[in-house]
Amino acid sequence: MHKKTTYWALSAFVSLLLLACSEQSKQASAKHEALVTVKSDNLYEQQAKEKIQTLEGLMSEANSKNIDVTREETVIWFAKEFLKFANWDESNRESVAYMFEQYAPYKADKDKMADELPDFERQKVIEILDGGIQELTSVLSGEIQRRPVNKVDWQNIVVGDNMLLSNGRPIFLYDYFSKSVGRPLTDTAVYNDHLGAIFHGGENLYPVDHDRAINSFLLKEDGSFDAELMSEVTDISNENVGFLIYWNMGIPEWVEKREPEVRKGRSLFTGYDIDNPLVRDVWGKIAQKTGELTKGKKVTQLGYILANEPHWFSETDHWTKGFDEMQAISSYTLNKFRQWLDKTYNSNIADLNKNWSATFSSFDHVEIQIPIDKSTRGTPIWYDWARFNMFRSTDWFSYLQGELQKGNPGADTHIKIMPDMYSENNRSHGIDAESFVELTTMIGNDAKTRESRRLNTNKPEKWESHYAYFWEEMSMSYDFMESVGPNKIHINSESHFLSASWWRKLDTSVDYVDSVYWLATLQGMDASMAWFWARDPDGSPEDRLEGTLNFFDPALAGSFAGSVNQQPHIANAYTQVMYDLNSFSEEVIALRQQRRPLRLFHSETSAINKPYHMSEQFSMYEKLFFEGFPVGFATENIIKKQDNTLWDAILVYRTEFVTESELKALQSYLDNGGTVIVDSALSLSKNEYGQVHKFALSQAKGKLIVLDGKSAIEKIRDLALEQVAAGRPDIVLTEDNGSEHKGCTWRVVKNPNGSYLVSILNIGKDKANLKLSLKNGKSVSLTNMLTGQPMAAEFELKSKGVTLLEVNAL
Questions:
Q1: What distance in Å separates the CA atoms of residue 333 and residue 419, rounded to the nearest whole number?
Q2: For 454, 459, 754, 773, which has the most beta carbons within 10 A of its beta carbon?
Q3: Range 168-328+393-590: architecture per CATH
Q4: In this structure, which CATH number among 2.60.40.1120, 3.40.50.300, 2.60.40.1180, 3.30.10.20 belongs to the domain 731-809?
Q5: Where does the signal sequence lie (predicted)?
Q6: Of the candidates 562, 492, 547, 544, which has an alpha carbon nearest to the alpha carbon of residue 206?
Q7: Burial of 109 by CB count in 10 Å (0-12 exposed, 13-18 middle, 19+ buried)?
Q8: Per-residue pLDDT tens for 538-583?
Q9: What is the per-residue pLDDT across 345-364, written as a single tens digit (0 to 9) for each?
Q10: What's the CA gap between 463 and 470, in Å, rounded?
């Protein structure tokens, strides 16, 4: 073909193509305009907009009367945001269906759920607007009175001795842990009073390399630091309170080349051997340098998180096997274990051989198969490995913290402990919760609760028979950690109260959110970062969740579906309950400082050896949880290190195995006049290796009560309560919920003016008929502090109900 002909043919083709594109653009534009029209005509959206106008009119009236409307401002903000989100979800139905598909329990219904989600969100927006209108109407009429919100001054937080302060008042901080990754930290559409405004130094946790987290890639092989990566840590805005996190997933190639064993003994979120000397050298330098460069910055006010959910499960057939966790140990770990055994057995290899039924010629020749066979639990080899695994993890964090504090001597630290490492029965994980709390300057965790059973089981869970939600893990671990570190700031840096890997409920109840945040805060929580906020301001998912969802940790891919990001009523409820808690922050602090007169003895020795020790301990803890005071714990270290007058008695329940030093600690308590109640002669009878102790407790100057082992758990509880009667509150609460199982947990403190402050949470599954009186038999008058309304001494509290009362004697 002639060149000129070719040119004109090509030109004609291009013209036709441009015309076609123009027509497509017009059609797309018309389709978009039609979609917008449909959306603007949506009945639910129109209703919501009308209710927004109604609420805004009431707010204007309230402002004219100097009535605080912070709560309503948040209602309006979430309403407008979620109307926008609903439209995005409607316009991007296939993307929404794909995200539902990534969560296994929702996979089969992904299309139905994607279709229903936009109007579900709009209806929930209407619900929160109706609630806001009703409440503000009641405030304007004088029916109820409420305190103004004690707003957080995010730029001026003071870290006190045992509380956080804002403008001189106690404050409880709230936010979302992983928060719209990819948005700048100064984006006020994401960082504000409605969503919280804690600056996160490392919230993009799943990419291996970086993104504002302190990680292994900061250090180069030549000993210099990567300036670009370091700037992502050091250039974080210094405006708001925040935290930094050590992200331990990756290890540089140059380290792996020099240390071929470096991946042996890895765990899910710690991708290397913590006993490797080069790893320790790399992390020591990184910790010291980053501590030096971030010293004094506001982003470290809530501390340095030394690890994300550490654990080293080292038993056969554990679910972590799929992540190559502890499928072998390095020569460094083995030699460290040998040295630990040498010291533990006082260099007597014969004793070890007897315990292990082995024939090692020396400690240098000791061998062990890891993962260890779970059938060995209760034997000396299991105990020695489990205890060593805890020792080496504590040693690792001691080293990290020490190096950090060389660069930043005042650095606050905590470790994001998974509380079920304490509350559940497994003990092959290497986590000693007591040692971690003692080590760090703050208490750290990522406790979870749930309103319904796990979605990976069809079997009813035990708690469902009596309670409105699963509270065991959070409450038991919080009371334990607060007993170990009673004056430490308590940070839940990834709270799983709203959703978790195997739990979520698209229509979670507002009452549940209200109850669980009251409970957690009363039990010590100073700051909470909920999991998780992943909406960009236009309604689309954050950067990580766009496109194909394929992550090392598959839980992230399914995290968006059914989360708070699709529940306007829950997002609003979270902020509203924190407003209420902060309005009564002084009262909450007073209530959680109530004395713990009775201590339940905890022994890791029994927890390691027994298959169901923690379940047995919870059964007693549960019986004490509803008696009007916070449950306390005692351990060998607590007895040795803390003022023993902080409690009146120690209860030992089904604790067969204790070390000699644990037994001696209890004896010293008795020697000094303490009271110890032991459920049976079997408790405290054996050492860590199952050998009978050479001595037993004697009463000495104290009071020793050893029961015959035949008493029902209720009888043991009642006997223990008798021993601490003088330390129990003056208020008496009588509960009738139609069963023999109590559901109301309550606390009492006496005010300086002689009145009493009483908090009651009904975590039972049924409503409770309650009656308050004084221990001396006198009647009382009640005022509901949340509404300012007087109440009768006999009243009803709904399931998941929360009340805060001022009680006066008549």
A1: 26
A2: 773
A3: Alpha-Beta Barrel (3.20)
A4: 2.60.40.1180
A5: 1-20
A6: 544
A7: middle
A8: 999 998 888 888 877 778 889 999 999 999 999 999 999 999 999 9
A9: 999 999 999 999 999 999 99
A10: 6
